[in-house]
Write a structure and sequence with these properties.
The chain has helices spanning about 5-25, 30-40, 45-50, 55-75, 80-100, 100-110, 115-135, 145-165, 175-190, 195. The protein has about 200 residues and is mostly helical.
Length: about 200
Amino acid sequence: MQVRLPAHERKEQILDVALKVFATKGFHESSMNDIAELAGITKPVVYQHFESKRALYLALIDDAGTQMINEITKATVQATSGKLQAEQGTIAFFRWAATDHNRFKFLFDSGTRNDVEFALAVRRVVDNSANVIVPLIAIDLDATHLSTLAHGVVGAIEGVVRYLLDNNIAFDPDVLGKQVADLVWAGLRGVGRETLGD
């Protein structure tokens, strides 16, 4: 007998279960039946919350991105300098990836970018992440240059985490997060308008 949950709790449960199913089987091989069965509910209950498998997948991209950005924002809000904000934000990203491999891999490394609609959804997440980083870059550059640098920072950090997870390399998120933050911060300090062009 299925337990009756408030709508928001049921939705969160479906998202958590869907993440496991999609991470294991991929989008095309997964079904709403698989998700319903693992959640211990009926398929119509899944459809009450998500109109299709595609809608559920898109919601999962949005949910993973929101969780990641929330972790970064929480970590940086109390920091008193740009350098400390960059450090705390990078460490928060590494902690999030270390404790939630499935969400990181789903978002950045699961073939989501092979589908146009999914790729656009991931791009929105990356753009939102870069938007969080832009205010931390204390360089007198125009908005386009700052956004470009912020996307470079996101790509660099994502690449480091992907390398570690793909190769099953254990890492301390606090130590590595600080090292990468120091690398990025030192690099940003060396950026001048002339190196980007006008």
